[in-house]
Fold these 4 entries.
Entry 1:
Amino acid sequence: MLRENAEYLKNNTDYAILFHGAGGVHKWGQGLRGWSNWLVDLRFRKSIASAMLDHMIEIILYNLKKLVHALNDRIQIIGFGDDLGIQSRPQVSPKTFKEMLKPYYEEIFGYVKKHSKLYIFFHSCGSIYELIPDLIDTGIDILNPVQISAKNMEPEKLKENFGEQLVFWGGGVDTQKV
């Protein structure tokens, strides 16, 4: 059904087609362990976090293989999401991100890049300015949203520093103060 729906959209629109919901390891960890416990696991109980991340990546890659096979020539963009920031900073330090989360994103996005021509859309709310260079390294093409009310997420600053490497999708509305 998914393949047929994507085929219909491909044949009946001039717009880019995005499939969003391919997975997110950070939000899964938060959902399974609770927000505080997951952050403690990433920082101090790394063996627990790593074991969970290993299992999550198995599930995500299993599903991703099916999605890429079914949708590769029917859509243009595949979407992932993990809210990595809060209003004032990333939820994890850049060091913890590089050590604990980045390798998993590299594996997931690397699979997409190797087996398709799809652009990678990544959703993360909050102040993630410090993580953007590492997110670019993982292979993302599109960052959504640009939460302009979060610290260091001014559109001009993002465009100046990362505009040649990323497409910024959304962010024209301050969703925190509407």
Entry 2:
Amino acid sequence: MFVVSATVVNGADTAVDRKPVLLFELPEPCNTPDGCTLADDGNLILSVPNFNNKALKQQGVIDKDAPAVMLCIDKNNKVSTWYEFKKEDLQADTGIVGPMGCDFGPDGHLYLADNQLFSNGANKSRLLRIRCENGKPVKCEVIVEGFIVANAVVWKGDTVYVSETILSHPPKETAGKGKVPLYSGTYAFNIDEFKNGPVKLAPWSAANPDPHLIATYATSGRIGFGADGLTVDGEGNLYCGIFEDGVLYRTRFDSAGKVVDTRVFAFDAKMACCDGIFWNKADNTIYVADMLQNAVQAVDMSGNVTTVHRNGDTTGADGLLDQPCEVHVRGNELIVINMDMPWESDLLANKKIDKPYTVSAIKLQ
């Protein structure tokens, strides 16, 4: 396991503005979209945790919670329900499920991060598996327990990687103020481990970390959210983006799948935040949702950062970015999920939850 921190800045100040367009509006109950992935049939599967429920009720916009749901978006951008969570799928202590990052495994099932942070920060988050038959979801089950913030999910061969955004809560008086480092990490699980019931993670200890933890990141603590997006490139390298610092790390493996090293891959002043990330085979580029700046960044394989698009505060009604949290490539378009879940911070461009709830698209050359 490696503990790493960022110390370098690279890249020229380049930009190519590709204006996003509105791909589609989400149904009104879907107030907080998050992670997404492509199914084998080309449909986009989208997680909708509806974390904005509390704020919208306080504002009088809604009078009851909208349930979390998994959506399907077909090639014509028609939106339908893919999976409705059942009572038995909810976390027993909190009574909710918070679907975020997701990816299909080699077994054809969907693996899904369940973030319980906003209801209970005491290691209640989980990795779920939605079993599929003939491409259709039939059942949800728990396969890993004990995260604080299960966030991104990505498969490489028979191993699934999950980012843990907070390994340990900093003291309340310093949380999110940049006074002490925040520790976060990436876990790895082999598919065979799920045959005998849920894997139970041990609470993080710097002296004795859980053996599934393959990398630990020490970051600024300025927001309180660390490891976030994950992606794998064509050579099998794993990348992890740091939400609060806009740093992209690369983990390399040997031929046996063991970690060789984890190092800073991209760190540029114009990339303030790394939320969702996605490596695109066609142009060998990693695209980054820069949530803080309402921006999308592109990182080449030398670690150089280019701003694809950035805009100010907006409702997103015209397709402009409205607190983007996830990116994914479908054909020649970069799909951008707009989370629109602001908090009070001078660092954040988005200032208000506002309808419509949208997904944007940027044409790739």
Entry 3:
Amino acid sequence: MSGRTSQSVPSTPRVISPSPTPSEQDGTGQDGYSGPMTRSAARRRLATPQPVEEDIEEDENPELRRARTRSRSPLDTRKVAQLSPKKPSGTASSTLKPIATTATTTAIATPNGSTGEKAPETNGHLSLPTPSLYYGWSWRDFSRSPSPLGLIPIHRHWRTFVHKHEVPRKALHVSIGFFVVWLYLSGTQTYSVCPYLMGALIPIAAVDVVRHHYQPFNRLYVKVLGALMRESEFSGYNGVIFYLLGAWTALYFFPKDVGVMATLLLSWCDTAASTFGRLYGRYTPRLRRGKSLAGSSAAFLVGVGTAVYFWGWLAPTKGPFPGDENFMFTGTLRLPQLLADAVGLTPAKATISGGLALGVMSVWSGLVAAASEVVDLFGWDDNLTIPVLSGLGIWGFLKVFG
């Protein structure tokens, strides 16, 4: 026994039960009966920690009760509200709709239990808003937006000649300017041209309205005249309508030389801006959507050349014709009397004539042509805004300095 070391047996650990719940404290039996308790048991019970209070509410949210953590700590309802998904707004749900698949369909149940029409089953993807092609219009329909490819048959067969460079359309556009020059050389007065313009405007506009309400006729229309149209005009209004309206406005309301110049700027400057803008617009700054510095510069240069051609060569050498006595530009420009007196200039020094006056008038005409080509007035077509704004700019300048 002396050679052997006695090993001490560890004592049995004391197991302390967790804090009793109110249900355990009240009673253990089904009828709430508990056995007798001795004094020693009562003292031991007082020495143990008190039970955790549980506030059980009958109307507690069951979802929050399931989300209770193990530590039974109070739940922050603000964090739960942040985790709830947001409902989509009414605007987005009205414009973006699920794309329907054509393979499978589901039946729509009517209130009486019978099966109604077949509804396409959606695939969960959102489709783009569908534009109204054949009905309805807005002011933005007048704008010459980039043409899609595929609406007019001839644009698919002649992509470069007709669709990209618009050669037939631009040839017609430019030819109107030469026709105006021929009318001027023949001694035709501007007021005698206006009835013919209005006589062509009314039936063309009426046909355009009819073709938008009768699709077989619209398809025949674009098949015959598609080479002279942009594809955006398939569901919009023809640019010829605004061309005739702009030319009629310029020739009817402005003096002869201003009306002729406004029509020439429409015919030649707009074509130059479109041609050079498409060729070199990608290399120059963009002024606004569809307008570049290259196109506006071309419109400015052609406007300067047109003014030099008309006021510097055509009218002096081929005229005068009947009605030329009402020209606003007669080869001289002068400062207003109030401005000349303010700077102390005599009437002779405040007046310029000859080539200097022609140069100033030509530069101003180019600026007016470029500005009227680049401006966006309510989204209207350039064929209407260019002659009207150009005529107003030239008329106002000559009214002050002429």
Entry 4:
Amino acid sequence: MNEAQDLFSLLRQTADVDPPAVDAIKRAIAEGEDRELCRINVLAFASKHGLDEERAIGAFLHAARVGIFDISWNVLCPGCGGVLDTNATLKTLQKDEYTCALCSQGYSPTLDEMVEVTFTVSPRTRRIAAHNPHELPAVEYFRQIYWASGVDVPEEGFAQKMEEFSLEDIELAPGEKAVLPIQLPSEFIIVFEPVTHSAQFIDVKGEPTKERRSLSL
């Protein structure tokens, strides 16, 4: 019997745990896509699987206690829906203000509006791509890591949607530099780095020109 089976056996022995919820969790871990097991929103999970919300929450909390899931308290930007910070416990939410570089706004965290609790399958139970977020493609990083679980990211055509409002993207290792030739339209441009949540704003104006301009960021 592998470790995952041991953990589920332990979970089923927990008093008051809901058997249908445990069955749904076990089935999702066995059959679900990797991205479905990263930052699970329990209310959405309960709705999808026809479970009672309170019993589903209880099952996930018990599952986290026995090691099936890792629980995360995520501080969200109320503007763009991005995750500004992640915490293993509520006690580690110690900042008085969180700043979203993309929205260029600062926010005081409130539990009912800016904090979500999500569950990610533990590596002890099943390895998924999000356990190594730096190895995710840019599109999947935004889907699984950057945006909150409540953001309605389409299952199909998401990469195409990203391409529609992105001029260019490039992945760099820590400390690495690159030169990126790009033709900028006469628009307001945002250079955004989702890992460190950094942004630069460029207001491009004037007539089109073939003259090369250099900008260091």
